[in-house]
């Protein structure tokens, strides 16, 4: 009889402990969370591009009154750029150190974005020339006007130039 | 020579036999009563609400490096390398919410997408401005049960006009709740 009573007491203790565990579990499990750490970064980015293919500027007319050949003009090329830096500039340069004929270029701001177009540039050597200054964090665009000039004294002929546009720190 | 005469009474012997039998029967009967006894115990079972969510680690760093000339929106980057697992027995109204420990600056966007086979995924959710007080639902109507190793997708994008961003961390909290 004593052994039976002791066994019943142990059973009651075990049941009580289990009930306690079930109650505490209910209090803690109303919601659960888990976390992740995400690392974000944006690198410096400057990108430039052209819309428009190779150009041919042909001087083939003359103004009788002026006596000099009329310039050849083309404004079909569009320049695009995107930069996430501050105080950037766009420079233009030719590969000819000593060109025979005159070629001028100017940025005509027709699109969006920041930047100040500089006065028309004469590509008389192969050094870079400022085309647009003060480009801030933005995406922008403009038209490019090419003007080719020749004097009668220079005679006839042709020459090719590779024009390079560069966006850099200002 | 002594002869012992034994005189017995047949009737008395019968009575004694019956008496002995009765006594023996009672003895057997009482022995049967002590061999069998039972005890009962009332046991109450309770299954409480259980929520459990875990993730498989941190995603790889999200770094924007390229863009298109003339376009302010730079090329976005993604990571789909991590997963989450859940277990819940509450009901069919359980959901998962997501929030950051701090909002992102204007011009930067962090999207999250959680797959789910137990609930309805909200698809790609912009959590750039979701802080702890404004967590957004990313999975809803989750049925009771377990959903293991479901994909977590992150997409980070930036505008050129927002500028550069040095390496920055955000803690994303996924909460399983009802």
Shape of chain B: elongated
Q: What general form of chain A does the structure show? A: elongated
Strand content of chain B: 35-45%
What is the terminal-to-terminal distance of chain B? 111 Å
The largest sheet of chain B is: 5 strands, antiparallel
How far apart the termini of chain A lie comes to 100 Å
The averaged pLDDT of chain A comes out at: 83
Q: Which consecutive residue ranges of chain A, at least 5 long each, have pLDDT under 50? A: 1-6, 11-29
Strand element count of chain A: 10
CATH architecture of chain A: Sandwich
Number of helical segments with 4 or more residues of chain A: 1
Largest interface: A-B, 42 and 59 residues
Brief overview:
The complex is a heterodimer of chains A (170) and B (178). By secondary structure, chain A is an alpha+beta fold. Helix content of chain A is 16%, strand content 43%.
Description:
The complex is a heterodimer of chains A (170) and B (178). With 170 residues, chain A is of the alpha+beta class. Chain A has one domain (46-169): Immunoglobulin-like, CATH 2.60.40. Chain A is 16% helix and 43% strand. Chain A has one helix at residues 2-28, and strands at 32-42, 46-51, 72-83, 88-94, 102-108, 116-117, 121-122, 129-135, 138-149, 163-169. The longest helix of chain A has 27 residues, at 2-28. Chain A starts with a helix and ends with a strand. Chain B has one domain (51-177). Residues 1-9 and 23-33 of chain B have low confidence and may be disordered. Chain B is mainly β. Chain B has a five-stranded antiparallel β-sheet, with no helix packed on it. In chain B, strands 6-8-4-10 form a four-stranded antiparallel β-sheet, with no helix packed on it. The longest helix of chain B has 26 residues, at 10-35. The N and C termini of chain B lie far apart (111 Å). Chain B is elongated. The interface between A and B is large, with 42 and 59 residues.
């Amino acid at each position: 009889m004593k052994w039976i009573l002791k066994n019943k007491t142990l059973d009651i203790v075990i049941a009580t402990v289990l009930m306690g565990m079930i109650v505490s579990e209910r209090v803690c499990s109303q919601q659960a969370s888990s976390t992740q750490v995400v690392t974000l970064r944006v690198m410096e980015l400057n990108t430039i591009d052209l819309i428009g293919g190779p150009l041919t500027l042909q001087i083939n007319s003359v103004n009788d009154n002026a006596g000099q050949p009329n310039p050849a003009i083309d404004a079909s090329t569009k320049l695009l750029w995107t930069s996430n830096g501050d105080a950037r500039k766009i420079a233009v340069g030719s590969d000819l150190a000593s060109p025979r004929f005159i070629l001028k270029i100017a940025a005509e701001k027709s699109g969006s974005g920041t930047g100040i177009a500089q006065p028309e540039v004469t590509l008389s050597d192969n050094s870079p020339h400022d085309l647009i200054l003060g480009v801030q964090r933005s995406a922008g665009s403009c038209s490019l006007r090419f003007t080719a000039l020749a004097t009668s004294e220079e005679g006839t002929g042709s020459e090719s130039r590779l024009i390079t546009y560069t966006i850099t720190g200002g | 020579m002594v002869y012992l005469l034994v005189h017995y009474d047949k009737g008395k012997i019968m009575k004694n036999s019956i008496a002995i039998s009765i006594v023996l029967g009672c003895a057997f009967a009482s022995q049967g009563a002590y061999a069998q006894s039972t005890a009962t115990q009332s046991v109450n079972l309770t299954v409480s609400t259980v929520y459990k969510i875990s993730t498989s680690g941190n995603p790889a760093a999200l770094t924007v490096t390229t863009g298109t000339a003339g376009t302010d929106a730079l090329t976005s980057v993604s990571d789909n390398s991590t997963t989450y697992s859940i277990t819940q027995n509450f009901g069919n109204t359980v959901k998962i919410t997501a929030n950051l420990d701090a909002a992102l600056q204007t011009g930067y966007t962090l999207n999250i997408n959680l797959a789910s086979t137990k609930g309805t995924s909200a698809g790609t959710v912009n959590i750039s401005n979701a802080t702890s007080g404004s967590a957004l639902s990313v999975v809803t109507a989750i049925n009771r049960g377990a959903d293991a190793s479901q994909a977590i997708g992150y997409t980070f994008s930036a505008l050129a006009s927002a500028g550069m961003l040095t390496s920055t961390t955000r803690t994303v909290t996924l909460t399983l709740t009802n």
